[in-house]
Write a structure and sequence with these properties.
The protein is an all-alpha fold. Helices cover 78% and strands 0% of the residues.
Length: 177
């Protein structure tokens, strides 16, 4: 399926799809699942599984009635949706864990939730410093997007995206220590 057809399919109501369109949507869903699986590896112990993360991101994409420019724009938006879903889950976990047992600081769910909340705080600071650094980090870390896809979404060169990625990672590594 070419880029324009996929973009049109993502922008249209998906309740009445042909067999081929269902196959195309299934491929997009499988790619989202691959991205979510990589998130589960990076962010263990949040209490949300891969399928739930994908389904929530998919529903969030559908609820917004957002029009996507192309496939990369869709996946960039999905990366942001996954970031927010994981962050909300981390907040919920931290509250529940705190209420359940205040003394259990070794709890992996609490530790991972704390990490995500710290990361989000630092990402907001990074965004205030340079919004493009935060965007590149979000697309790469949460969306597992390739540098060329990020470059296309942001309308900058791939080399610039790579520099932003390195700079954002270095700044966040220092801030999270």
């Amino acid at each position: 399926m070419d880029q324009a057809d996929l973009t049109q399919l993502l922008n249209n109501d998906q309740s009445d799809l042909s067999a081929q369109q269902q196959v195309d949507i299934a491929e997009v869903y499988a790619h989202l699942k691959k991205i979510a699986r990589s998130q589960r590896v990076k962010v263990k112990g949040t209490g949300i599984n891969t399928t739930a993360l994908v389904n929530e991101a998919w529903l969030k994409n559908q609820k917004t009635a957002k029009t996507f420019n192309d496939r990369n724009h869709f996946f960039a938006y999905s990366a942001l949706a996954m970031r927010h879903i994981l962050l909300n889950e981390a907040r919920r976990n931290q509250v529940l864990t705190y209420v359940d047992d205040q003394s259990d600081t070794e709890n992996p769910v609490l530790q991972e939730s704390s990490y995500l909340l710290d990361l989000e705080k630092q990402l907001l600071k990074l965004k205030a410093f340079d919004p493009q650094l935060e965007q590149v980090f979000t697309y790469k870390f949460f969306g597992d997007m390739d540098f060329n896809d990020i470059a296309e979404v942001m309308a900058i060169s791939e080399r610039t995206v790579f520099r932003y990625w390195k700079k954002a990672r270095a700044m966040l590594a220092v801030a999270l220590q």
